[in-house]
Amino acid sequence: MSGIAGLLNLDGGPIDGRLLSRLTRFMAFRGPDAQETWDGGRIGLGHAMLRTTRESRHEQQPCSLDGRVWIVADARVDGRGQLYEKLRSAGHDCRQGANDAELILYAYRAWGDECVRHLLGDFAFAIWDAPRERLFCARDHFGVKPFFYAHAGDCLVFSNTLNCVREHPGISDEPSDRAIADFLLYGINQDEATTAFAHIRRLPPAHRLIWSDGELQVHRYWVLPVDGHLRYRRAEDYVEHFTELLNTAVADRLRSDRIGVLMSGGLDSTSVAATARSLLSEQYEEFDLRAYACVYDRLFVDGERHFSGLAADSLGIPIQYLAVDDYGLFERWRTGELQLPEPADEPLAAIYLDQAKHIASHCRVALTGWDGDALLNENLNECGTTLYRGVQSARRAALMAWRALSRGRSARGELRAWLTRILAGPPEQTFTCPDWLNSSLVEELDLPARWRDSQEKSVPLRCRHPHARRVLTSPLLTNLLESYDPGVTRIPVETRHPLLDLRLVGYLLSLPASPWCVDKKLLRVAMQDRLPESVSLRPKTPLAGDPVLELLQRADARWVDAFEATPALGRYIARAAVPSVAGTRDPDQTWTNLRPLCLNFWLQDLASSGRGSRREEYHEVA
After folding, report:
1. 3-223 with 235-376+468-536: one CATH topology?
2. Residue 458 and residue 455: Cα distance in Å, rounded?
3. Which CATH class is domain 3-223?
4. Taking a C-beta distance cutoff of 8 angstroms, is the pair 262, 537 a contact?
5. Which end of the chain, N or C, is less surrounded by CB atoms within 10 Å?
6. CA distances for 459 relative to 90, 141, 385, 426, angstroms
7. Residue 41: partners with Cβ closer than 8 Å, 6 or more residues away
8. Measured distance CA(94)–CA(522) in Å, rounded
9. For residue 405, what pLDDT is reported?
């Protein structure tokens, strides 16, 4: 995942070229192949290159097709052949073998702002249209690629790397109280348009940002479609169409002969690995596909080593295990070695960073199995409730009324109970607040009202896939996908998620949930001859234990209850009211009560990160 950055002087004055170079060099950790800048007077673009596709071998960014419209992009454009055809049909020739940034420019030339409606893949980009004095930026549909921006006086600063934006000397590190409160209550920031910093914004997934005529506007360009209605006569057709789309999704995310797969012993990631193995064998005489798995051997009994090993042996690919039993709580947090750009309740984050390092020693691209659990594991009871509360409720009520009239008292009682349940809606929930959260903060931010607003978000009536829709539109998914980004890990590995391919998602949401999207039947049938039976028929199996809870039972974990609060924590937390967590077994309460410690680490890093000294150093050099 390449790094992108830009400066736009809103008053028309020339940008600071030395500052742009500095921001670009800062991103060398994620784009080690080249760091280049372009100065267009009032605007400057910077790019740190990570070459991950065949087309990127000779790519240079920032780039332009005509010297008038310039782009800087962190992008992988899928469906390239179809995009070529659409461009030609629109009367625009496109150079064969164009890199991804050039393809986006061709699309912008053909369709202007609507180009994003014709793009598939993962992308974050900024286009400067010099003849129109106009900035056009966009982020992909599910938010795989981040995009951040902020105002520093009359300068608009943007990047796909949060800490790069913070490097601008005119941008404050003041935390966002609302984002911090969200983290303490939910574990993530619920507002996808904000960050943990009060003065830095996040472009939400499926949104575009436009600066023109002195005005900055942000608009949504895509919404997850309401379920379609696709039906086949033969069961085989469902499987064949799914297999075709899965092959396409994986193929678009390969484009290299050195690939890693984050592979547990579950069905989703092993299916992606099997598909990648088949496609690579068709394209190359020699290729390097490896699997990577984190496993527990002693902390608790875990079957992931066994099942992932069966899949790897069956596919004939090597697998590298990272045994993680000996990782401690908040390992490398206390030394300041592990610094995250935003608060995170990941006491074992060092595991995932070490796994990324192992992958980076072999390749630059890793595939995952996210999010088969959302798309292929619907709850039939939830589906039924959602449908009954929609338009089909009338049909159901009419049928039950007829039965009540024809069958007598028992059916009338059934109708009455059903109507009572539907009209009542879901059980009422109340806002609960940890005792340690400062009451003044709760009142100032009106957190109960904020909680009620989040509860009112519901899936549309007539939705046949309520679980999938809830997950795919949740800020939790965006948070998860961003956690793989090198801006967080600081490791140059691009993570790709074939099951979140837009074409595949649209197909699955158009199918009847039962039977195909319940218990992953569609995927099981498609993989029955490609994976060992014990893997393809393995039921959904969560991790055998919660490693954080297990580690909290150890005597060496007692330090977590004796942490010394940094002064900034007092704004949010009554330290004396935080209960002990060592030795506890209640997962919900334990994870909630660990968040003050997570926040304390982040605030300590913020205070010691040297922002003030870096700002003074910049001014001295300038």
Report:
1. no
2. 8
3. alpha beta
4. no
5. C
6. 36, 18, 11, 13
7. 14, 15
8. 37
9. 43
CA 259 vs. chain centroid, Å, equals 20
pLDDT digits (tens, 9 = 90+) for 408-449: 444 455 445 544 444 444 455 677 899 999 999 999 999 998
Report the C-alpha gap between 78 and 55 in whole angstroms.
13
Which pLDDT score, from 0 to 100, does residue 194 have?
Answer: 98
Q: In the block, which residue shows the tokens 């059903």?
A: 418
Q: Is the pLDDT of residue 397 over 50?
A: no
Give the integer Cα–Cα distance in Å for 487 and 30: 7
Question: For 486-498, b where at least 16 C-beta lie within 10 A, e where not — what string?
Answer: bbbbbbbbbbbbb
Indicate the residue type of 53: T
CA distance 246 to 395: 36
CA 22 to CA 609: how far, in whole Å?
Answer: 17
**pLDDT on residue 416:** 53
Q: In this structure, how many other beta carbons lie within 10 angstroms of the beta carbon of residue 46?
A: 29
Q: Is the pTM of this model over 0.85?
A: yes
Quote the tokens at residue 527: 């993989």
Q: Is the pLDDT of residue 387 over 60?
A: no
What is the token pair recorded at 578? 């935080």
Domain 235-376+468-536: top CATH class: alpha beta
For residue 242, how many other CB atoms are within 10 A of its CB?
A: 20
> Tens digit of pLDDT for each residue in 559-612?
999 999 999 999 999 999 999 999 999 999 999 999 999 999 999 999 987 554
Taking Cα atoms as reference points, which of 319, 371, 325, 373 lies closest to residue 348? Answer: 325
State the amino acid at position 301 in one-letter form. Answer: V
Domain spans of the chain? 3-223, 235-376+468-536, 547-608
Q: Are 385 and 396 in contact (CB under 8 A)?
A: no
Return the pLDDT at 354.
95
| Residue 619 pLDDT > 60 | no
Q: 590: helix, coil or strand?
A: helix
In degrees and rounded to multiples of 5, residue 196 shows phi and psi of -75, -5
pLDDT tens per residue across span 140-187? 999 999 999 999 999 999 999 999 999 999 999 999 999 999 999 999
Cis-peptide, bond into residue 371, ω within 30° of zero? yes
Taking residue 546's Cβ as centre, other Cβ atoms within 10 Å add up to: 16
Sheet containing 3-9: give its strands across.
34-39, 43-49, 3-9, 155-159, 148-152, 200-202
pLDDT, average across residues 252-261: 94
Q: Is the peptide bond between 547 and the residue preceding it cis, with omega within 30 degrees of 0?
A: no
CB 77 within 8 A of CB 53: no
Strands 207-212, 215-220: pairing is: antiparallel
Tokens 């830095």 label which residue?
Answer: 200
d(CA 16, CA 377): 52
Distance CA 217, CA 214 (A): 10
Most distant CA pair in the chain, distance = 89
Residues of the chain with pLDDT > 90, as a percent, come to: 79
Name residues whose C-beta falls within 8 Å of residue 189's C-beta, 6 or more positions apart in sequence.
Answer: 179, 182, 183, 195, 196, 342, 475, 479
Q: What pLDDT was estimated at residue 339?
A: 87
Q: What is the C-alpha separation between 70 and 72, in angstroms, rounded?
A: 7
- Number of residues assigned to the chain: 622
Q: Which of 129, 139, 122, 81 is nearest to 105 (CA)?
A: 129
